[in-house]
From TrEMBL:
InterPro entries: AB_hydrolase_fold (IPR029058), ARM-like (IPR011989), ARM-type_fold (IPR016024), SERAC1 (IPR052374)
Chief subcellular location: endoplasmic reticulum
Protein task: Facilitates the transport of serine from the cytosol to the mitochondria by interacting with and stabilizing Sideroflexin-1 (SFXN1), a mitochondrial serine transporter, playing a fundamental role in the one-carbon cycle responsible for the synthesis of nucleotides needed for mitochondrial DNA replication. Plays an important role in the phosphatidylglycerol (PG) remodeling that is essential for both mitochondrial function and intracellular cholesterol trafficking.
Bilayer topology term: Single-pass membrane protein
Taxonomy, superkingdom: Eukaryota
Name this protein carries in UniProt: Protein SERAC1
Organism, as annotated: Monodon monoceros
GO terms (BP aspect): phospholipid biosynthetic process
Length: 611
């Protein structure tokens, strides 16, 4: 009750008492003076904590119903709760969000997301009372207020004399170690051995060797814990691709441990991205959705998807899309990222554009704006400070909002001895089947589509189309392919594999590099088969080719894909005065490279985008 109201009540009560005799005007004046004095004195001495009142108000309006929607009676009345008129909308939207009518649920979430005039406690009502489906819907709504999302619950304490690194190692060791892919075995054994040695050094376990063992032990003590954690996370990424291993990760407290690690490494995007990859893989399993939500990950994902850093936002968008079974039927497996749309949208999506990078490329960095001259070395892929722009997301999405834009990522290497997994000797044929399976799971083939590829990525596109043509279940990919863009694709091979003089990079060329050699039988067969396949197909082809050489390492200057190798034999071939790295990186939006690409996409999909 406010002070003013209190004073009015006091005065009203005094006014209802028997009035004094009219003749006694003196005492009436004294009485008025006394009342005025009391009110003024009360005003000075009385203070009300309005925050307490507000908290009590919030408490009285938090009612979470545990009865199943299916068991409730079908009526629109509320229980007898003292709700002010302007607050009925909150509860009506909550009820609507749990309707059996999907359209009504979607509308309720949209209205919640667009609300701007609510008080803080009203957002908290929604946060505490909404179901999983509504929460994910709000998380995937672009303009949702962050107050819709509760902070993660407190994390459990670490075990006595334990560390995050040690618990991460124990989590990894608890996962099945038999009947695994060679690369999963490699990453797991590497992570467990490195972490064991690091922990032993930290605890002094190796000092007892003495003599020559002392510097050996000291060297392990110098290994940063973040490095060991990265080994463990890379192994967990591989394990999380197996559904039963995801169950083990969840059962052994992995969601909470990964959350602790995520918060500890806010200044290390690479660690956070690997954690997001694990979470995105776990989200492919619908029975784990409620556990992921209860562990508090949604508020973290919402902050990440709103980030200006494209990689961070895209990893979060993938996880949230996998959690959203209300509006998303597709599943985005590891390495498949939607650049647009990353939120729920009322814009009908009429076609897909797929970006496939090449040798040593990546889903984001390959398609950035052109920056300063760089060397084609593996140091480039580790320098994340320059990968701040992704033109398919920032330009193409605005120019063609009716497109779903997907970029894929896979590991490649110039040399076997620098490969992330030495046992991973994947041919173009193997990779194409792997990518084809992942893309089909993402719904690729359900709409008209255009492929955009750079370097070796173009060979993968050709192989994927050939493989899809042999499988009835993949026929929609063939039927809906409208066009292909090739950026410096070595259809007839490259000189790259022939230059092995730089011992650091090409002493042991990787299988990918060997397959790019001019005398590769696999490459010749692929070209011949694709031309035969394309002869009877009605899709458009546009090719670009570099005219400038590229530095490989610090010593070699090489024309990676010459004009004659980039000539597919069908479609237009356009030479551009850039090197192999920059052939797919326009300098700016009005540059020829981008504008010609945009024109091809619009022209090729013109009929589909009009419908």
């Amino acid at each position: 009750m406010s002070l003013a109201a209190y004073c009015v009540i006091c005065c009203r009560r005094m006014g209802t008492s028997t009035p004094p005799p009219k003749s006694n005007t003196y005492w009436r004046d004294v009485s008025s003076l006394f009342i005025t004095y009391e009110v003024l004195a009360l005003k000075k001495s009385l203070t009300l904590d309005t925050q307490v009142v507000q908290k009590e108000k919030m408490k009285s309006y938090i009612y979470v119903h545990t009865v199943s929607l299916d068991k409730r009676e079908n009526h629109d009345t509320f229980s007898t709760i003292d709700i002010e008129d302007h607050e009925c909308a909150v509860w009506l939207l909550l009820r609507k969000s749990k309707s059996d009518d999907r359209a009504a649920r979607l509308q309720a979430v949209q209205e919640m997301a667009e609300t701007r005039h609510w008080h803080d406690y009203q957002y908290r009502i929604i946060a505490q009372a909404c179901d999983l489906r509504t929460l994910i819907g709000l998380a995937r709504s672009k303009d949702s207020d962050l107050r819709f999302f509760l902070c993660p619950p407190p994390l459990p304490s670490l075990k006595e004399e334990s560390s995050v690194e040690e618990e991460l190692r124990q989590l990894l060791a608890s996962l099945p170690q038999t009947d695994l892919d060679e690369c999963i075995q490699y990453f797991t054994s590497l992570a467990l051995s490195e972490s064991s040695q690091s922990l032993a050094a930290q605890k002094g376990g190796l000092w007892c060797f003495g003599g020559n063992g002392l510097p050996y032990a000291e060297s392990f003590g110098e290994v940063p814990s973040a490095t060991v954690e990265m080994f463990c996370l890379e192994a967990l990424v591989k394990h999380s691709e197996i559904s039963t291993h995801c169950d083990k990760i969840e059962a052994n407290g992995g969601l909470q441990l990964l959350q602790r690690l995520y918060q500890l490494h806010k200044d290390c995007p690479k660690v956070q991205r690997n954690i997001m990859r694990i979470l995105g893989n776990m989200a492919l399993n619908e029975h784990l959705h409620s556990t992921i939500v209860r562990s508090g990950w949604v508020s973290i994902l919402v902050e990440a998807i709103k980030s200006h850093h494209i990689m961070e936002a895209s990893h979060a968008a993938r996880t949230l899309a996998n959690l959203d079974r209300e509006t998303v039927q597709d599943k985005y497996q590891d390495g498949v990222y939607v650049l647009h749309p990353q939120y729920r949208t009322s814009q009908p999506i009429k076609a897909d554009v797929l970006f496939i990078h090449g040798l040593m490329g990546a889903a984001f960095k390959t398609w950035r704006q052109q920056d300063n001259d760089q060397n084609l070395s593996e140091k480039v892929s580790e320098d994340e400070t320059k990968y701040t722009t992704c033109w398919p997301k920032s330009w193409l999405a605005r120019d063609c909002p009716a497109l779903r834009i997907i970029s894929v990522e896979y590991d490649t290497s110039l040399s076997d001895w620098r490969a992330r997994c030495p046992m991973e000797r994947k041919s173009i044929a193997f990779r194409s089947n792997e990518l084809l399976r992942k893309l089909r799971a993402a719904g690729v083939g359900d709409r008209p589509m255009i492929w955009v590829s750079h370097s070796m990525g173009g060979l993968l596109v050709k192989k994927m189309l050939l493989e899809a043509s042999k499988k009835p279940e993949m026929s929609t990919i063939i039927n809906n392919t409208r066009g292909i863009i090739f950026y410096s694709v070595p259809h007839h091979g490259s000189h790259l594999a022939e230059y092995s003089v730089n011992i650091r990079y090409l002493l042991f060329p990787s299988l990918e590099v060997k397959e790019l050699s001019k005398d590769s039988p696999a490459l010749k067969t692929l070209q011949d088969d694709f031309l035969e396949f394309a002869k009877d197909r009605n899709f458009q082809v546009l090719s670009f080719v570099e005219t400038l050489p590229t530095y490989i390492g610090s010593m070699i200057k090489l024309h990676v894909v010459p004009l004659e190798s980039a000539d597919l034999g069908i479609g237009d071939l356009i030479p551009v005065d850039v090197n192999h790295l920059n052939i797919c990186k326009p300098k700016k939006k009005d540059a020829f490279l981008y504008q010609r690409t945009l024109q091809f996409i619009r022209d090729t999909l013109a009929k589909d985008l009009e419908n």
